[in-house]
Amino acid sequence: MLDINTGEQIQALYRLIEVKGGKRVEKFSSTDINEVINFHKEFIKKYRQGLLMEILPEKKTYDWKEKKVSYSFE
Are 64 and 70 in contact (CB under 8 A)? Predict the structure, then answer.
């Protein structure tokens, strides 16, 4: 995934979520878009309903006290 602000290549976490009765249930998550698409195709074949996909970009955080860079999906 390409970051619009910096123009650099970043990772993204793709999540498939089922919304049922106002509750969100995570069905599948991966950083590979092809795995997520294949899971969604199989889920549609089996249950005949779709899922909501969330795309969470990787966020880089610098801790100036410890001089470390940490990455997280938010």
Answer: no
In DSSP terms, which residues pair with 20 in a beta bridge?
A: 23
Taking only the tens place, the pLDDT of each residue in 6-49 is 777 778 999 999 999 999 999 999 999 999 999 999 999 999 99
Distance of alpha carbon 4 from alpha carbon 8, whole angstroms: 8
Q: What global pTM score does this model have?
A: 0.78
Q: How far apart are the first and last CA of the chain?
A: 15
Other beta carbons within 10 Å of 36: 20
Torsion sign across C-alpha atoms 40, 44, 47, 50:
positive
Q: Are 27 and 36 in contact (CB under 8 A)?
A: no
